[in-house]
Design brief:
Helix 17 packs antiparallel against helix 18. The protein has a domain of 220 residues: Roll (Dipeptide-binding Protein, domain 3). The protein has 18 helices and 20 strands. By secondary structure, it is of the alpha+beta class. The strands form six sheets. Strands 1, 12, 13, 14, 17 and 18 form a six-stranded antiparallel beta sheet that branches. It has a four-stranded mixed beta sheet with strand order 2-11-10-9, covered by helices on one side. Strands 5-6-8-7 form a four-stranded antiparallel beta sheet, with helices on one face.
Amino acid sequence: MNRGVASQSETFRMTKEKFVKAQTEFPSGLALLAAGVTFAVTVGCGTPAQPAPSDGQPQAVQAVKRGGVLVIPIGSAADPPSFDLHQESTSATSSTAGPLYDNLIVLDPLRPSEIVPDLAERWELSPDGKTYTFSLHKNVKFHNGNPLAAADVKFTLERVKDPPSGVRSPRRTAFDAVTSIETPNDYTVKLNLKRPSPSLLINLAQGWMGIYDKEWVEARGQDAPKKETMGTGPYKLKEYLRGTSVEVERNASYWVEGKPYLDGVKFLIIPDAGTRLAALRTGQLMMLDVSAIELRSLEQEMGDKLTIQRGVNLGFNSLSVNVKRKPFDDPRVREAVNIAIDRHGAVQVLAQGDGEAGGYMMPGGIWSLPQEELQKLSGYGKDKATDLERAKKLLAEAGYAAGFDARINTRNLQGYVDLSVFLIDQLKKVGLNVDAKFYETAQAYDLAEKGDFDLLPWTHSAGLDDPDSIYGEFYTCSAPRNWGRLCSAEVDALFERQSQEVDPVKRKALMLELERKAIPTASRIITHWSRFRNVSWSYIKNWVRHPNTDNNYRYRDLWLDR
């Protein structure tokens, strides 16, 4: 058996010819089979991150300085609806609970394209590709002193895959291929699959897969992880002041010797973008994702005092249309809404030109349609005058020549408000009279889950550039966040085919066909994908901004050079 990051049985090794082809067509050949993903991050202006991800080579090693508290804004600039990583999908939760837990395996914090061991010190894949065996570290304890055992891993993964009553699991479909989980002893976990699953490892590695203490959850109840935390992570929850901050402190008994380096991390809740930027300038915040306009100003003003990282973001803005409500049950109405929206205008208005129109998979990623083909799909062209006329005609055919009234429901956060205002203006051009109502985060999520909306604008952060992760969460009939409730048997059939295809070349071909079939259904209308511009003070070391920060909120290796 083969071991380590890119474990693959001989059954699934490509021939030399296929390997060469995959190396040419994909950013990563064999790694793609194991992980299904690769990312690129550009570091520039100021002190480079260590190691520089642009060339994958480590920089000169500096003597680590211990201590200090990292002060950064909370994800989503809002209170976390809860601390339960398994149930939530907002970075307000992942940013604050992430440092408190460890995974079975993780995406390397300094090299985002690599999967590395975490609580599992190694893993193996059976020759038929249907059994993964993970061997656990033996010196790990939860924050309450309970020892980590295989039963905790089994409990956690089953909680995600088959959630108990009252527990929601947005990522449950990522583990559809898993038929059973065995624990031969306290330090071995076996995942048995009904078929090969090229996406399994990367889904296990994402930041939402923190391992929970089985005994603690069962004693306190399934709702306990919402308000309390009990992980094995490098930090413990210290204090939560609603509307103000969440603070975590160093776990002095952490199982990785000498880590973490920091005394703690303090997450500030600052809803206003201008206030956040001012706090960065004065040093009250040490790190911040900024807009394109803000970045230009900071570069001119602060120069090499800052480290700047840029890259493609696994984030997209969208509009879900509720097909269970009239008139959106009519495909002509949905198509009219779809083609009325100017995606290229959204890039300019909402992303200050620093974004990209895209389909359901990340633009420029290994699974996405080429831009020239995407622009031929309905609603993606640049001739909006023709699109608007066609949209009006479709509405007239559906019996709504005079338009109709509709309601937007969404979160009361600046990005969501901006997106809603943009969409209201777009739909007004074809005669729709849309108003908006904004809710605090937890209530907005409840409305989305219940389908209590006409139109639902949302800013999403996809966990991974992986088909099983994205389609399984958003676009299949059973997807937990298919909030518009549209179901396509053809889309589901293609999804199942690609999900078990271990040849990356064949899988990519299936994915392109899936994009061609799924995007025109407009189950979720994508306005645009974003890019990230992460700014940090240059004294921050060992930090690499992942394409999705949900996968790198541990701060185990980060230290402050001051």
